[in-house]
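Dear colleague,

Thank you for sharing your sequence with our group. We've completed the structure prediction you requested, and as agreed, I am returning the results in plain text so they can be pasted directly into your records. Please verify that the sequence below matches your submission; if there's any discrepancy, let me know and we will rerun it promptly.
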Amino acid sequence: MTQMAKALLVDDRRENLMALEAILQGLPVQAVAVESGEAALKQLLVDDFAVILLDAQMPDMDGFETAGHIKRRERTRHVPIIFLTAADRDAQLALRGYQVGAVDYLTKPFDPWVLRAKVSVFVELWVKTRQLAAQSDLVRERDAQWRVLTDAVDEATALLRADDPAARDRAMELLEQARWGTPS
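Please find the predicted structure tokens below.
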């Protein structure tokens, strides 16, 4: 069973978190809401996320500092961050957001359908990445099985060329073990 994608919602105001949860309702994503940058960093230690919706202006650790920490961690550096802010359309703030690794910077009020569309894209990318990783694991497993079988056939072939009854018996044993996947 595939794990459901998660979106980390970070805002110091509970009403904003509730609004974001409502906007994302109906999408194939589980919203995880936290009220500070510190709480976001802790959450990122235990969960994987398809996208982070991050308030730029929060007390204590603001969104920019939080994003900086997120992007410095190996485990989380590739998680897309969309900044959300009530600040005026200050180009310097947007630039600062992009400099710390944001993929987008939206000022409030923003169109909820645009945000849903953006989150949907990142959720789909997250799901496809998980599917590719699973397929890659399967290919590696099959390659390992193929190598074991090839080695068994090569060893059995060498034994059969020896024209020795004991070697033939060992060759047959190797081929049977390879056929049924039992260790030699």
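Summary note from our side: The mean pLDDT is 89.

Kind regards,
the structure core
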